[in-house]
Write a structure and sequence with these properties.
Layout lengths: L1 H18 L7 E6 L6 E9 L2 E9 L26 E10 L11 E11 L2 E4 L9
Length: 131
């Protein structure tokens, strides 16, 4: 399933770029996390003289637990001397169980992938029927 993960991450990156647009000054850099499919994406920009850094964890797991986000909440080192504002988020497939995550963590739901029972499925756009 090696090549499929690249395609899956491409769809997720499109969803992240809709929320953190380069038009608004966001620079997005994905960083591979461990050996699984999980990835941490770093979105950062300078807004009104402040550096804003958002760390987004991308996971395709059905159940997300608090111990999975330990790497997410570790701050990035800043080498230019500015004091950054950090925010954290996680993006999960539709119908994933996020009930055990902290309430202040921003949770995005993927529009491209969802769970149907125990299976991860690709959610396709509905086909328009012409009259």
């Amino acid at each position: 399933m090696g090549i499929c993960t690249d395609i899956m991450h491409d769809f997720v990156m499109q969803e992240i770029k809709r929320s953190y647009s380069s038009y608004d000054g966001w620079k997005i850099v994905p960083k591979k996390k461990g050996t699984g499919y999980d990835t941490i994406v770093i979105a950062e920009r300078i807004n009104a003289g402040c550096r804003e850094i958002v760390r987004i964890m991308v996971t395709f797991k059905r159940e997300v637990t608090p111990d999975m986000i330990s790497e997410l909440i570790r701050p990035e080192p800043v080498l230019d001397g500015t004091v950054p504002r950090y925010d954290y988020a996680i993006i999960v497939p539709g119908q994933a169980d996020t009930s055990r995550l902290p309430k202040d963590l921003r949770i995005f739901i993927m529009k491209s992938f969802a769970f149907e029972g125990k299976e991860l499925i690709w959610v396709k756009k509905p086909v328009r029927k012409t009259a």
